[in-house]
Write a structure and sequence with these properties.
Strand content: 25-35%
Number of strands: 12
Structural class: alpha+beta
Strand order of the largest sheet: 6-7-8-12-11-10-9
Length: about 325
Amino acid sequence: MWKQNRSLFKYFRFMGLVMLIVGIGLIVDGIGDYADQSHQKDWISIEATVTDVSSQVVRYPTKGRSRTYYTIVYEYEANGEIYTGSIGHLLSPRLVGDTITVKYDPEMPEENTTILSPNTRDLVTLLILGTAIAVVGFFLSGGLELFRNLLRKKHTEEPKESVPKTDTGFDSTAIAKIPAKQWVPRLAAWLLAFVAVILFVKFFLTSGAADLDEFRNAAVATGYTAVDSTEDVRQRWGVGSMLIRSVSVHEDSLRLDFCRLDSADGCRRIYAAATLPITGEVTESSTAARQIYAVDSPTNFAAKIRSGRMMLYVYTTQEDKADVLAFLESVGWWSE
């Protein structure tokens, strides 16, 4: 039992020291960033054009969730020269061709930022967060007990008993008494359930849908001409590097654009923003595996379909609608 308590004692001390360092680092970063932004008040504001956009999925294992962040690249003109810049960690994307306002250093035009004024909110957030983490770290690392001992030595010459090695501010004895047989099976069960859900979604809910190469081969086998259209779709949709690859069928009475985006969140946003070129009777359906929005007019049919990181755009005439939907059903991207 003593060895277990001693291990917990060392663990809390180490974690406290790490938290203390992290908290102080957040405070220093917050003050430094605010000071830098304050020094940029004389920089020149100008309109910049977005030239590329991409996304990255960041997973938080401890929280059991993930979040998608976006990075945009932009360019602007200063003194007759073209300069580029970028900004990341955005919660929502911008499309290629959009304009944003940036500031640049008149003495060094290549230095630029999208922060137009000192961000007081970020400063306050980092100060509060950094202080809270540092205080907890100070307590866990033993700094509080060390400070108390120094005060005691200053006010009295009597020898003081050393702080028990197991005094971490927590009831480490109670923690150590928790038998492994209570929490290990529960943890294993949660992990197995999580893996089962992921495998079910990946291999069962989306198993019937064709990927890009299968879609292209099936289109060719049906008699369509399918070509790689990545650059064309990137420009038409304005999605830049968010689009990994696309395969398209372009004929007189038919247009199919089958695309893979770099994240599911990016695909969802592009799907939500996409408009269909006709008006008429609307059909919508949404399941765990697929989302469909289709419009029927007297002469044409159009639809957008999304599944994970994949999106399919459909436009055809009423005369060819049945054949097109039959083809999409054969590759798992349509069902009546």
